[in-house]
């Protein structure tokens, strides 16, 4: 096994992690930004006002993208299992 293959595995793992996390987090960040702009425009300084929309957006993102996220993780897992003979021998 050469170090290049380990670097490729690590790069692929980081790519999968970044993809999965960004699909969950980015919609909540966008909604949080919209709520923050609304709060700044109306001078409402309520902290709980921004929490609920972000929470609901994150839950909806998990609900609608859950199948895609699980499929991405399963494809990566199957790819890693198929690479075991190459890495060991």
Task: Produce the secondary structure layout.
Layout lengths: L2 H40 L4 H36 L1 H5 L1
**Percent helix:** over 70%
User: Based on the structure, what is the oligomeric state of the protein chains?
Assistant: single chain
The count of β-strands is: 0
Main sheet specs: none
Q: How much beta, percentage-wise?
A: under 5%
Mean pLDDT: 91
Write structural notes for this entry.
InterPro entries: Bac_export_3 (IPR002191), FliQ (IPR006305). Its main location: membrane. The chain crosses the membrane at residues 12-39, 51-70. It is a single chain. The protein is 91% helix and 0% strand. The chain has 89 residues and is mainly α. It has a domain at 28-88. Helix 1 (3-42) runs antiparallel to helix 2 (47-82). The model has no long low-confidence stretch (mean pLDDT 91).
Would you summarize the structure shown here?
The chain has helices at 3-42, 47-82, 84-88. It is mostly helical and 89 residues long.
Name the descriptors.
3 helices; 89 residues; single chain
């Amino acid at each position: 096994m050469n170090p290049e293959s380990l670097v490729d595995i690590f790069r692929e793992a980081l790519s999968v992690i970044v993809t999965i996390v960004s699909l969950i987090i980015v919609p909540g960040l966008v909604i949080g930004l919209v709520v923050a702009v609304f709060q700044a425009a109306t001078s409402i300084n309520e902290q709980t006002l921004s929490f609920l929309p972000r929470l609901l957006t994150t839950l909806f993102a998990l609900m609608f993208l859950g199948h895609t996220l699980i499929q991405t993780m399963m494809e990566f897992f199957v790819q890693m299992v198929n690479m075991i003979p190459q890495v060991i021998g």
